Amino acid sequence: MGQKNLIFGGTFNGPVIMGRDFSSIALGADGQNPSDVPSGQLIHQLRDAIAFEVHPAIDIPRGTDGTDLPLYVARSHDSELYAVVEQAAEGSSTAAVLVGGSACGKTRACWEAVHQLPDEWRLWHPIQPTRPGALLDGIGSVQPRTVVWLNEAQHYLLTPGSDTGERVASALRELLRDPDRAPVLILGTLWPEYWSTLTTPPDTGNPADPHAQARALLTGTGIAVPDTFDGNDLDELNAAADADPRLQKALRNAQHGEITQYLAGVPALLERYRTASTGAKAVIHAAMDARRLGHSEGLPLPFLEEAAIGYLTDQQFDNVSENWLEESLAYLAAPTRGARGALTRMRSRPGQTDPDPSRYRLADYLDQTGQSQRRSLCPPQGFWNAALNHLSASDDLLALGRAAEERWRLRLASALYTKAAAVGQVQGLAAAAQLLDRVGEKATAQQLFQQAAAAGHAGAMVRLAEERARAADHEEAARFYSAAADAGNTAALVALSHIREAAGQHKEAERLAVQAGQRGEQKALVSLARSRSRNPDFPATEEERLLRLAGGKEVAQLAQRRLRAGDLTEAERLATEAARMGSSGALSRVARAHRLAGNVKAAEQLYRQAIQSGATSMVGDSPYEELARIREEAGDLQEAEQLYRIGAEKSATFLLPYLRGNIPSATRKRIAESMRHAAEGTALLNMALMRERLGDEPEAERLHRLAGDRALRRLITARDEAGDTSEAERLALQAAAKGDPAPLRKLAERRRKNGDIAAEKRLYHLAAEAGDKRSQRELGRLLRDSGDNEGAKKALKLAVNAGDREARHTLAQLYESNGDTHLAEDLARQATNEGDARILSRLARRRSRNDPRWQQLLRYGIEPDGSVSAPWTP
Known about the structure:
Blueprint: E1 6-7, H1 23-26, E2 41-42, E3 72-73, H2 76-89, E4 94-99, H3 106-114, E5 122-124, H4 131-138, E6 146-150, H5 154-157, H6 164-177, E7 184-190, H7 192-199, H8 212-218, E8 222-224, H9 232-241, H10 245-253, H11 259-263, H12 266-274, H13 278-292, E9 299-300, H14 301-309, H15 314-319, H16 324-333, E10 343-345, E11 359-362, H17 364-373, H18 381-390, H19 394-406, H20 410-422, H21 426-438, H22 442-454, H23 458-470, H24 474-486, H25 490-502, H26 506-518, H27 523-533, H28 542-550, H29 552-564, H30 568-580, H31 585-596, H32 600-612, H33 623-633, H34 637-651, H35 665-693, H36 697-707, H37 712-721, H38 725-737, H39 742-753, H40 757-769, H41 773-785, H42 789-801, H43 805-817, H44 821-833, H45 838-847, H46 852-860
Parallel strand pairs: 4-7, 4-8, 5-6, 6-7
Antiparallel strand pairs: 1-3, 2-5, 9-11, 10-11
Helix pairs in contact: 2-3, 4-6, 6-8, 9-10, 13-14, 13-16, 13-17, 14-18, 19-20, 19-21, 20-21, 21-22, 22-23, 23-24, 24-25, 25-26, 25-27, 26-27, 27-28, 28-29, 29-30, 29-31, 30-31, 31-32, 32-33, 33-34, 34-35, 35-36, 37-38, 38-39, 39-40, 40-41, 41-42, 41-43, 42-43, 43-44, 44-45, 45-46
């Protein structure tokens, strides 16, 4: 076995014994009181990976020696992560978030990576008394050369019903931007579903953007971690297994390459869950439902006890023993093959005080299992009663309240919001007000908004300000906006800037807009600039002056507007200025305009300028590729090929840093191979197309073969744009056969734009057959529009079964229009239980005109069992 292929417990190039050492957690590196030292502990002194939430592994077979953790085998994501760590070590504040399923190796990868940092680096893991609270309380003390450890980052950033997560994200963004505290490294992990929730922009036209700060923080930080080992990873794992019997066992027994999951004891954990007693399984289901509805990881025992009873029938409850809870907890806490049990009591770290000692943690793989397998179930009434009777943490109450509201359990949502407000969470007042406003109780909602605003809730202040603005009471609106801005609401700054500008207070309007820009919201300056560009009282240079304050991106957009207006000279000047400010994209677009106008020399000069400014490969306007075409047309094939290669390599620059440092040679070889494929695939494709244009078909075909599958999508687009639609479709079918149906869908979308409905339908059908669920939905839409309702139902059902929520909405509408009201209601019930009440509320609004029962449902909601709620008051 070659040790060069491995990362051994804590370092990329040598073995370290991972002994349990709590002293470095309780005290600083030099034994001082934690209050006397910077946040966190010196990384090179940390040995207890388990304390930082790395999964404990299955037991070491008897009679063998080994560390607490198995030998670590580096994979491709480790190289990406190492590049980020190296950037931090070189002095830049940066962040990385590993995204993958439970027990796939995310936290272990972070643990190995941070041990590459120099000895003076520290690791800070904010966790007590709550994760977001600890972070907000302590982030001001973070000093340079600190890793902020955000394992399971959803606990920090995703706080349903509360703006705590957004405040955490804002504080982390500010930390990254603070030059006086650089370098810092933020490392986090997330499951894919949480990543999607936090990074997906809201629907068009929806003013609510609950994760704007989190999305800004996470954009560009994601590193995908595969669930399985395959290919080269398995080869290296086989070599490593010679030195670690746990890896040997995992190789023999793990299914589908799920090595890390097996090492974390997942198969035994699932078996223990499936074979649990009735009482133990009820406890697990209560824990699963609490976690999937937003409760924090620490579940209070009194809540679990009462909630679990709600999952038992009368007969089941009569049959459990008097000590059923103690027996269930003992069964669930037992380790599985040495790994943590299904439900375990949370312990405080040395030196920390737990405000609620009777808290339990659900194993995260079971947490993930509950997210998927129980997605369409609404917890029983006993669960909600237990929440109201035993939960006291305001964030947990708000989260469950939001989950209840999303499931149209309005009575329960109101009660949970009210209790959150009673324990001091002003967000509870605002949430209750929004709920009542939503169902038409305007007067009561207004009173609650006023109470929330008086208690300092910025969102409530904005709401009242908007109402006063609609009533033309601008001074009162400005007062509320000003108070909200003082409370940290950036949107209020933008609105207040508009009010001051309209009132002629131009200096104050600009000051507010600049202040909003400093908080990361450039919209105020952009809006102000455009407003003044239409105002003859301001000079023509005013728009550009304000956009300069907003940043290079906004100046670049102004350049593009000038370009669309036909003012090429002014567009070039502005694009050049934007490039000086760090935004070079507009240069390529202006260069393209010059080229289309026949000004090839000017275009070439601007493309070279864009390259010098650091532009790489913007979609559709890569300066390298466009300049290569110019050199090709000038007959300079040597420089054209060089530009194609360099441009492709620049598009993969994220790989280049991986080849530095102490990376094992086998890993270096794999990285170099990945880089070669990423860069050469695109370069070879461009050179193949160049040879085609020159009529050199044999060389073009050879280069196409060398380019391989990585360039296939682009080749399909090129063929289709050239008018060779049959060849484009042939290649798209080839891609689908290899597991990539997206090119077929893209061709279908192009046919729609061209008005070729028959071809669109045929291509969507092929893409759907290849497994593309979005195409399945579009096929259903086309069949419906053509009058084939039965075919549409079949296609949409397949899309719904594949998890397409929008297809469910379309199918419900089709059922309703065809008179299949019960089927429409079934879909509405399923969607509502999953937290999407749009179908139900739409049916209710339509039917409430003639049916009092639906009127009652629309106003008062439904109960956990789906029945219509009786009238209730807040």
